[in-house]
Amino acid sequence: MTTDRHGTTGHDGAPPTVVDLSGVHKEYGDAKALDGVDLQIRAGEAVAVMGPSGCGKSTLLNMVAGLDRPTAGTVRVHGQDLGALNETGLALFRRRNIGMIFQFFNLIDDLPALDNVALAAQLTGTPARQARRRAVELLDELGVASRKDTYPAALSGGERQRVAVARALMNRPALLLADEPTGALDSRSGEQVMDLLIDLNQIGQTLLIVTHDPKLAARCAGRLVEFADGRVARESGIDEGTPERTA
Known about the structure:
The chain is α/β, with parallel strands linked by helices. It has helices at residues 57-65, 87-97, 113-122, 128-141, 157-169, 187-202, 214-220, 243-246; strands at residues 2-4, 7-9, 17-28, 31-42, 46-50, 72-77, 80-81, 98-101, 175-179, 206-210, 223-228, 231-237. The chain has a single domain (2-246), classed as P-loop containing nucleotide triphosphate hydrolases (Rossmann fold, 3-Layer(aba) Sandwich).
């Protein structure tokens, strides 16, 4: 068995596993948020998780991000057992290996777009000049370089989400997590973000998307995981040849 920057590669030569949840439980008092979840995501996959409110989707995302710890079971990301890391180690691992996109952007209001993006790299020790250079490149690739000196309050919703995507990609993460990435956007901006997620996956970015939007799942993911009562209720492939996927 061999490894690369994305995790562990099996003997069959299949893409390496980036996310591996085994028997994961999460309880809050008497409530079971996750009830024995097994889930694997390989490098280059785009996986959408759907289900009703309260079914465990957000808890799952928090587990994979290392923002919360399981009551029982194992969470491995990029070959690392997250349970073996202390809080400082988790924070550093997350900054280096996981990019996160949120429904409400989570940008820092008193920093312009460029500094919001560059900060992600500076927190891992990248020199400021180098971080700002990569931030400009990413903002340019995402079509918002002209807004680099603009503060979040003066950006449109679509622009803010593009800045947030640039920030998430800053450290070239093995895994990109998206929590309702189009939920706060109008339909046009939402379509643009969907197109962006598709483009990222087509160049090899591994994606895990939590969404209530079946259109987002159909367009951006190759596999659908349906959650119910803290468990994986069903998994299915999404045909990449469908009009929704290629639109």
